[in-house]
Design goal:
The protein is of the alpha/beta class and 473 residues long. It has 2 domains: 311 residues, Trimethylamine methyltransferase-like (TIM Barrel), CATH 3.20.20.480; 28 residues, no CATH class. It has 18 helices and 19 strands. It has an 8-stranded mixed β-sheet with strand order 15-14-13-11-10-9-6-16.
């Protein structure tokens, strides 16, 4: 088949090797700080040296062993055991998208008004991700503010379990709460479903710190045979070198350190690695995603392809104030480059105000972008049956193709049509009072949320989960 298809690469093999050399050199000569005594003991046993001042210097051979030990492919299942998605570092034809993550506020889809994130918002956000085909995973959409803080993450996870059957990307802050969440999940959906449909997400502290909360949760996850995401957040000029190259080298080293620890816990543990590379504005004391962020994101994905390790990238959540032009510019950059490039998993779509506010309308807008970007990525064929060269020759100059043989064969194939915006001519638009596309998007999102069905096992999971939570009191 002669298929015309766009692709996007930012690194050549020489550059990939150079970045790898810099990363392993950082681990050997700068090392990492390891805060948890148990984690230090595990490193000490592997390295065969005493660890001073909590600093671990990771030998090159140990890093290369970990890279070779980590699986190149990870399957995530839905709750019912049906296929969810596959992350394949050697075949990233289809980037996987998800919604989230840990927002403190909720943005009303009709008015854009921002309010604190509540339990009802968690249910609505999760059910929206369940109902949109463009998303294959739900990352913890927010942090519930209308219940006791010690229960907020447990209740939030319960609402996620009750409102989606899709694989869940789980973000929980405290190790004790994290263990309770996994135990609750075991009791509600079974240990096997927990193992195959829940993917925890962990962060080190950049630069080069494996904090105790992270290593403890990694150990809890690995002991259950679960995959996990190890992802860092770096700010060029603040927590990372100010240059893109320096940021990429440091973040890659940090990811490899997490990979080494995961494999030391259990050789062959499935790990997904990735970065959220931002820039830091010293005047405003604020971080931003920039075009350079997108380049670093793609480069990180290519490094993971080189290592044969699935990649988790950034999702374009930035300083949008709703589903607006600011949000759209970054979403298009992120989603199109992710689909054309090497990122495997793009889990955190739908956040505005620097990931503080979850916006359902932005999620729906992003779904439209993802759909169009995937259509673009399909390319087109130059096979003889597709080109119809003989038909062109036979019909000649000035011909009409409205009723040609090839047209009659293919005119029923679907064209790209929007679920949100009707394609109307100028006169009709004027007759309708010149409706604004933003208003149409907001109304569509609001109606979609109101019409989403309740999952079949919703009530059972909530009831059983509430009983479990009461048993913890």
């Amino acid at each position: 088949m002669s298929q015309v298809k766009a692709s996007l690469n930012v690194l050549n093999q020489e550059q990939i090797q150079k970045i790898h050399e810099m990363a392993v050199t950082i681990l050997e000569k700068t090392g990492i700080r390891v805060d948890d005594p148990n984690a230090r003991a595990i490193f000490k046993k592997a390295i065969g040296q005493d660890i001073k001042n909590n600093k671990v210097f990771i030998p090159r051979k140990l890093t290369e062993w970990a890279i070779n030990a980590s699986p190149s492919k990870i399957d995530a299942l839905q709750r019912d055991g049906l296929p969810g998605f596959t992350l394949d570092s050697q075949n990233n034809d289809q980037s996987i998208f998800g919604i989230g993550v840990t927002n403190l506020y909720y943005q009303d889809p009709l008015t854009d008004k921002v309010t604190t994130f509540t339990r009802d918002h968690m249910a609505r956000a999760t059910r929206l991700g369940e109902g949109l085909d463009e998303f294959n995973t739900i990352a913890t959409p927010g942090v519930i503010q209308d219940c006791r803080s010690e229960e907020a993450e447990l209740i939030g996870f319960l609402e996620m379990l009750a409102n989606t059957a899709k694989p869940i990307t789980l973000l929980i802050s405290e190790p004790e709460t994290f263990e309770k969440c996994l135990s609750m999940c075991d009791s509600l959906i079974g240990e096997k479903a927990t193992q195959t449909s829940i993917i925890p997400y962990f962060n080190p502290i950049t630069p080069l710190i494996l904090n105790a909360e992270t290593t403890i949760k990694m150990e809890q996850t690995v002991s259950r045979g679960m995959p996990f995401i190890f992802s860092n957040y770096g700010m060029s000029g603040a927590t990372c070198p100010i240059t893109p190259g320096g940021t990429l080298a440091l973040l890659t080293a940090e990811l490899l350190a997490g990979l080494v620890y995961g494999q030391l816990l259990n050789e062959g543990t499935p790990v997904i690695l990735g970065s959220l590379p931002a820039a830091f504005d010293m005047k405003k004391m604020q971080s931003y995603y920039t075009p350079q962020s997108m380049l670093i994101n793609l480069a990180c994905g290519e490094m993971m392809t080189h290592y044969k390790i699935p990649h988790c990238g950034t999702s374009g959540g930035w300083m949008g104030r709703g589903p607006d032009l600011m949000a759209g510019s970054m979403l298009w950059q992120n989603h199109l480059t992710s689909i054309l490039g090497s990122p495997d998993l793009v889990p955190f779509v739908g956040n505005n105000f620097d990931s503080l506010a979850f916006s359902p309308a932005t999620v729906v807008y992003a779904a439209e972008i993802i759909r169009l970007a995937r259509d673009f990525n399909k390319g087109f064929s130059l096979d003889p049956d597709e080109v119809g060269l003989e038909e062109i020759i036979n019909l000649g100059p000035g011909a009409s193709y409205l009723t040609s043989n090839l047209t009659m064969q293919k005119f029923k194939e679907p064209l790209t049509k929007s679920k949100i915006w009707p394609f109307i001519p100028l006169e009709k638009w004027q007759e309708q009072g010149e409706p604004k596309v933003g208003k149409e998007l907001r109304e569509y999102t609001h109606a979609l949320i109101e019409e989403l069905p309740t999952p079949d096992n919703h009530d059972r999971i909530l009831e059983t989960g509430e009983e479990y939570l009461q048993s913890l009191s």
